[in-house]
Design brief:
Keywords: Cell cycle, Cell division. The chain is an alpha+beta fold. It is about 50% helix and about 20% strand. The chain starts with a helix and ends in an 8-residue tail after the last strand.
Length: about 80
């Protein structure tokens, strides 16, 4: 094995490590459930809705859903039947 072969093999190893790290990062992002701002968005939506309707904290659900090439923000609000404020 010559010097050039030795340097070339390190590049392949570095490229493989880089690809593996990118896969791990992508999987971590998928497992977290979305961007970091989703919990804050959910809390702020709850505060705004509470100004008009009396609801529980778990009545608002915010999810980021993958739809083909697009990310879709899915917001679900369970409103009470009586509509009390």
């Amino acid at each position: 094995m010559g010097l050039l072969d030795f340097l070339k093999s390190k590049k392949n190893t570095a490229e493989t490590a880089k690809n593996r790290l990118q896969i791990i990062i992508a999987q971590e992002r998928n497992h977290r459930g979305g961007p970091d701002y989703l919990p804050l968005l959910q809390r702020e939506l709850l505060e705004v809705i509470k100004k008009y309707v009396n609801i529980d904290a778990d009545a608002v659900r915010v999810d980021l859903v993958k739809d083909g090439e697009h990310d879709v923000l899915d917001i679900s609000v369970a409103l009470p039947e009586d509509g009390d404020k």
